[in-house]
Amino acid sequence: MTTVLLLNGITGFHVDALPEVDSLQFKRLCYSLANYSNGKILSFEEPHSSQNFYKTELGLHNESIFILLNSSYPCVAFASSVQYFEIEFIDHSLSNIVCVFNDGFRILPAIETNQQLELDERTHTLFTENSLNEAELSQIFHWKPKTVGDVIFNFWD
After folding, report:
1. What's the N-to-C CA distance of the chain in angstroms?
2. Burial class (CB in 10 A: 0-12, 13-18, 19+), 146
3. How many Cα atoms within 13 Å fall on the side-chain side of residue 110?
4. I want to staple 9 with a disulfide (CB 3.0 to 4.6 A). Which of 18, 87, 127, 154 is the partner?
5. CA-to-CA distance for 113 and 133, rounded, in angstroms?
């Protein structure tokens, strides 16, 4: 049985109030991961009007990785690159140790975030399992994201 990832309000466009994620807890998690991996937090960015997620850049030896947290649900993903409307979701070895520091987040593997989004243009519905609201579906058909991850972590305004 698969878990529905596209939950009502996950895009940031919702009609009902949703609980907000604990950004302080996420920040602590990121610093713990940096300490554990002998890395360094290079930047921390809060959600804003055209970005529905928190973004931490973690410098590790000779690479940077990004740790993303959806602003409505405690869904975390790793990315090798985060550009406007273009996120490269990856699996990272750090994803396996997140549970050591905190079990309050759901780590989304790249196979889930990179899953192709299936749109039915004729009926304005998704073939991908979801519980999204009408405002979110409207945004999806406007912005035309390619993957499930592009819906969960988006740059829509």
Report:
1. 33
2. middle
3. 13
4. 18
5. 20
The tokens of 155 are what? Answer: 């740059």
pLDDT confidence band for 96 (50 / 70 / 90): low
pLDDT digits (tens, 9 = 90+) for 52-62: 999 999 999 88
Cβ distance 121 to 36 under 8 Å?
Answer: no
Predicted confidence (pLDDT) per residue in 128-152, tens digit: 889 999 999 999 999 999 999 999 9
The residue written with tokens 């930047």 in the block is 43
How long, in residues, is the chain? 157
In angstroms, the CA 40 to CA 61 distance is 9
Closest residue by Cα to residue 18 from 120, 132, 118, 97? 132
Q: Are 59 and 42 in contact (CB under 8 A)?
A: yes
Question: Is the sign of the CA dihedral 14, 19, 21, 24 positive or negative?
Answer: positive
CB 155 within 8 A of CB 144: no
Q: What is the pLDDT of residue 1?
A: 37
CA–CA gap between residue 100 and residue 111 (Å, rounded): 22
Closest CA to 82 of 96, 108, 64, 107: 64
The CA distance from 77 to 112, in Å, is 10
